[in-house]
Amino acid sequence: MGDKKGGYIDKFLKKADKAIQEGVKKADEVLEEAVELGSMTAKQASKTSKELHSQAKKESEALQKKGMEKIS
């Protein structure tokens, strides 16, 4: 039964990671559009994008940690 539980957690973590990555991709697209419209400079967009990627990485790591705790 431990394998089944681990499998469910693994599937959940993959789905969560995919959702996070899709969110980052959409945010990057919005930032790119803001640059094109002149609402934001490329430098500002780059900085914001890096911050979003960093936040997404932290959230992904937190989800993985919670998943591993559940498996244990």
Percentage of residues in strands: under 5%
Along the chain, the helix and strand elements come as HH
Which regions contain 5 or more consecutive residues with pLDDT less than 50? none
Distance separating the two termini = 13 Å
Biggest sheet record: none
Number of helices: 2
Structural class assignment? mainly alpha
List keywords for this structure.
mainly alpha, 2 helices, 72 residues
Task: Describe this structure in a few short sentences.
With 72 residues, the chain is mainly alpha-helical. It has helices at 2-37, 42-71.
Report on this structure.
- The chain is mainly alpha-helical and 72 residues long.
- 92% of the residues lie in helices and 0% in strands.
- It has two helices and no strands.
- The longest helix has 36 residues, at 2-37.
